[in-house]
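Sanity check

After download, print the first record. It should look like this:
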Amino acid sequence: MEDWFARLSYPVADLELYQKVRYGGAKLSNEEIKELKDALQVIYEKWKEEK
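Expected structure tokens:
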């Protein structure tokens, strides 16, 4: 996923939390969920600006 964001020139968020859930089957704490949402929001806002 990081490669995809980089290819699109989006800020590469630390997607360790995403990978932790996707590939490790782990559960995130409320703080980790907020951190991931915030990182994805930055990417979403950049995408909206480019439309």
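If your output differs, re-run the checksum step. Summary of this record's structure: The chain has three helices and no strands.
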